[in-house]
Amino acid sequence: MKKLTVLLLIVMLISIMSFGKTTIVFWHHESPAHRVAAFQKIINMFEKENPDIKVVQQVVPWGDAWTKTLAAIEAGTTPDFQFSIPELTITAYQANAIIPVDDIIQEIDNKYQYIKSQLAPYKIEGKYWGVPIWTMPMVLIYRPSVLEKYLGTKEPPKTWNELLLAAQKITLLSEKEGNTIYGIGLTAGNNLCTQEQVYTIMANLGVRFFDENGNLTFNSPETLRAVEFFKDLYRFSPPGSTGWAWGEIEMNFSAGKIAMMPYFGGLQKRFYDLGNYDLDAVLQPYPIDGMKGNLIYPNDVHIFKSAVDKGHLEAVKKFLVFLMRPDVNAILTAQMEPGSFVPVTKAAQESEHYWNDPVIKTFKHMNEVIIEATSYGTLYGFETGSAVNLAIGSISGANVLAEMIQNVVTGKMGVKEAVNWAEEKMKSFMK
Amino acid sequence: MKKYRGIIFIIPVIILILFIILFPIITMLSNSFRNVRFGFEKNPAFVGLKNYSELFNDPVFISSIGKSFLWTFENLLIQLSIPLFIALLLNKDKKFYRFVRSIILIPWILPMVVVSIVWRWLLEPNIGYVNYLIKSFNLPGVNFLGSTSLTFHILVLINSWHFIPFGTILMLAALSTIPNDLYDAAKVDGANSFQRLVHITFPLIGKIVWFVGLLAFMWSFNTFDLIWLTTQGGPANSTMTMPTYIYKLAFKSYEAGKASAAALVSTLILITVAVIYFVIFTPKEQRRLKIAKSQ
After folding, report:
1. Which value does ipTM take for this structure?
2. Which of A171, A385, B40, B124 is such that its CA lies 20 to 30 A from the CA of A431?
3. What is the pTM of this model?
């Protein structure tokens, strides 16, 4: 009886304490345990500063993100907000399930200054529908020791010609020695990794998927040239990469089988843990008549209409602005995935909280390059500064770029035929 | 009332079956005639046979049908012959054979996600163990999962590797039902081991082989996880079977209407083949029994 009374008292106490609290729920797709822990760390900090708001994180793995989001929209069971990428935000926008976030963007911009290139994928019909939280720029990462051994210099290539020659020289010289190190790491698997690498090369020639009016402009001399260059470069990439995804290319690079590759900076954490510091980065080399350019993948948060219906909007806004505070943003970026997740505001990029992270500090030059790359970056389909054609969500989801590259490197199609095929495929999504 | 008691008891089960089998098929049929994109529109437009006509004009879909049949054929060939061979080898009541019978189940227990990842690593051309072995004999490395001509067959082997233990256990169960007296009698009559295999073993395990064949057919035709987790239908659509194609349409391109049409075509193919299989390949003994019962 005594136990029961105590239990009842505890339950009543908890009920009284939680009365008047707003509980906001968000979905994210970062299932590794350390990422979930980082989110929880931020939530705990926020709840300490805002005792009237309770924040609940729910993990939906990336593989289920689209199906679960659409199912929740259909069933009316969406969370208050969700971590996302441009394609998913477009999907939620097309499903008429999210609200514009211009006021939040404005507030964050005033406080911390957004890097403008990161906002483009979230601008649809003059309004912003996602709040960029961090970004993922692709740069040319390399093993300085391999360059020094086979090229006689630690200086990485800066132009396309230099890159091709360097890749060739490293591959052939190491092959002669009986232990082939491939000059370049390119994947041609039917996946996002391939799309991101090929787009990084396309960005060096300013390839645009659409014009300002949303008309398809993919099949251009620039695209043909970029695909031709990818094909040339691919000769010095490891065999079998038509079946590769993220895991294989990372393992090959870490095992010292690849000298250079267009990639995200996230491998620095693995190198740091292994005590291997033979890693650096440079901006993606570009042709002499080309331009600095690379892929960026800004990740955002979009707010569902259900947050408004439940009266949670103010609490959500408060949390999002809190996320962008430089000390908090450093947890989301430097602590969660150093080098891969990169701040999107000037204040966070310059913050000592970011640069004092031990991994970021160890690979300082590499991270300076990565930060610089955020200013030059673009994302396929959003080159004009906003989302001009929403078919880009389906085009990206269907891995059209990756399939095009597979067709080229397996010899199934010539470059012209493959680019034509890709454009036709893209048109079919625009119908 | 007593007369209807049986029917009353069976109604909940019938409702359940209708709900879990008929309802999805009807929904699929209805979606295949509409421009469905899940979550995007509440009332998708009726488009008649447009989804079907687009499908049959898509060379990737046509080739995916052929690939599905080839996939099933190659899998059946391996999944019926090797389990039988292994079962015949292991059909001895000794400690060693009992031990081997237990451990061969390991591949079957492994989830397909694990199988896919393990094989991806083993077959990786540069740092994978299989190529390491090949290269140690001074042979050139093999591009197992990135080749338009080889990858399909490699995936068949992996899929069969996963199924073989289960098939073996079923075959062993069938072999254990054959009375030893029959073999003894045949020996007395002067039958050698090959004759005993052909005239006693094969006819008596026919039913189980038939059953394993049916299971292997259904599972092989519907294989999705292994292909998706290793190649996603690539390289250059060389491993794009119907289930992979359907998934890609529905969840990567969001064309759920067209995916429903493709799924319906796939269902019809499966039903047709299953009916043919039942009619042609049902063991004679069972057919005779059925005929006798009907008379």
Report:
1. 0.74
2. A385
3. 0.82
